[in-house]
């Protein structure tokens, strides 16, 4: 089975031109089939604010009303996505920028209103792995932003980590897939105070121990939960660390397997 | 030779939700291979103004400075393009939104500074017909916005009419191409005061007569010049009229051939 690498970057990389350029060069050197997934970061918030659109938060989570969705579509789908594509072309990567609406690649369902109405937020229901594969087989490198659609004409805001894992799960029908979650830390840390205490490998047994010891807490909890969900649904391996994990020599990151 | 239809719509259709929905339904019913090209219209100007970016005009033409290019990338490449793609998906057209950077489809060169520095405006130098064809052969319908790239990482603003004709010329190597320029009028008019005086067919001979008689003037002059340029470079036929020309029964529009 051929391999496919899904690399996800967050807002911290996108917001800084130098970090982005360094990352894109590393990404362009990644061998084999690959997909890039990017979030949007604070750029959307600052543009929304300039346009006089207030960011509405409930329990620390952003509410995507119609106006906010427009800004997200402009910033993630337009400004950020197309500039990444142009930069990758300059690095000889034949990139193609996508939302979930393009080639009907990622369908989602508007999140039902329970305690909180999150607005135009979509939970992924389907990944069109055959269509995405046509692009890969055509020699193109898909670059996904964090937007999906409901198939009935409505774009929806979707978490970029989720897009990475759902695309990886979907593509596992055709490839041995692995995810590279690039973030600020060097990896999952044994001691949060010590940024060099990277846990190099987490498997199911180690995961249980880490949970019992209370080492995985806060924001890392849902992240690892999502990782094991993906691994249980066909993804081969997941790597977490800073962008240096894409280089061939660095092994200071966390690899997660079943 | 298979046929390929390139349909271009302007800002007047995009700005009005109802007009856009009517048009997209007509477009979805167009049979055979097809490509959509759209401009952006006044939406970019109004968003730029809200963001405090002044529209700079020289001799009645817009100057695309760095800030304006960002707005164009957001509005044309993000907001307008992705909403069209989502709406087409709802009409069972497997659309894919593109700038010229995506699949390296349209390369351009920044317009050299002579009397006026137009800023980040690109004149098309190359259309990657093989890459665009991979998308068409994959069952996808390309939807181009009016943005190209220079291959060195820079996005550039490019006239949508030009994109339509350059893509049509490029694709003529593989298809019998025809262009449908949708605009406000019913077609090229014999008498500008009478909107029903549509000239049904213009060929090279008729074109010369119309020029001599002074019937083709003002904005129509460069439009028809571009049409004959495209026809001389492999495009089979060009149609000009309002969106009703996409219906099967209406023949009240102008058809242009050599």
Can you walk through the features of this model?
- Chains A, B: It is an enzyme of class 2 (transferase).
- Two copies of one chain form a homodimer.
- The radius of gyration of chain A is 18 Å and the shape is globular.
- The two termini of chain A are 19 Å apart.
- Chain A has helices at residues 11-14, 17-29, 42-50, 66-90, 129-137, 160-171, 204-213, 220-232; strands at residues 3-9, 33-38, 56-58, 61-63, 95-98, 106-110, 122-127, 141-144, 147-149, 155-157, 176-182, 201-202, 237-241, 254-256.
- Chain A has a domain at 3-182: Acetylglutamate kinase-like (Carbamate kinase), CATH 3.40.1160.10.
- The first copy, chain A, is α/β, with parallel strands linked by helices and 258 residues long.
- In chain A, a hairpin with a 2-residue loop joins strand 3 (56-58) and strand 4.
- The longest helix of chain A has 25 residues, at 66-90.
- Chains A and B meet through helix 4, strand 5 and helix 5 of A and helix 4, strand 5 and helix 5 of B.
In a few lines, what is going on in this structure?
Chain A is α/β, with parallel strands linked by helices and 258 residues long. Chain A has helices at residues 11-14, 17-29, 42-50, 66-90, 129-137, 160-171, 204-213, 220-232, and strands at 3-9, 33-38, 56-58, 61-63, 95-98, 106-110, 122-127, 141-144, 147-149, 155-157, 176-182, 201-202, 237-241, 254-256. The first copy, chain A, has a domain at 3-182: Acetylglutamate kinase-like (Carbamate kinase), CATH 3.40.1160.
């Amino acid at each position: 089975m051929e391999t496919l690498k899904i690399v996800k970057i967050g807002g911290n990389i996108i917001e800084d031109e130098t970090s982005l350029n360094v990352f894109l060069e590393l990404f362009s050197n990644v061998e084999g089939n690959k997909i890039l997934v990017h979030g949007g970061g604070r750029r959307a918030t600052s543009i929304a604010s300039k346009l006089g659109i207030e960011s509405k938060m409930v329990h620390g989570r952003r509410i995507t009303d119609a106006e906010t969705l427009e800004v997200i579509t402009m910033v993630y789908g337009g400004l950020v996505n197309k500039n990444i594509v142009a930069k990758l072309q300059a690095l000889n990567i034949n990139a193609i920028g996508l939302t979930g609406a393009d080639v009907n690649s990622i369908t989602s369902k508007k999140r039902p209103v329970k305690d909180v109405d999150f607005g135009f937020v979509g939970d992924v229901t389907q990944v069109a792995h055959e269509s995405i594969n046509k692009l890969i087989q055509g020699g193109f490198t898909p670059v996904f932003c964090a937007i999906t659609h409901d198939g009935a004409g409505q774009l929806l805001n979707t978490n970029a980590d989720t897009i990475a894992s759902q695309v990886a799960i979907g593509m596992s029908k055709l490839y041995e897939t692995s995810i590279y979650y690039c973030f600020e830390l060097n990896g999952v840390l044994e001691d949060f105070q010590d940024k060099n205490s990277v846990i190099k490998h987490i498997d199911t047994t180690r995961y249980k121990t880490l949970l019992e010891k209370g080492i995985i807490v806060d924001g890392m909890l849902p992240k690892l939960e999502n990782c094991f969900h993906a691994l249980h649904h066909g993804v081969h391996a997941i790597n977490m660390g800073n962008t240096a994990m894409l280089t061939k020599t660095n092994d200071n990151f966390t690899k997660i397997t079943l």
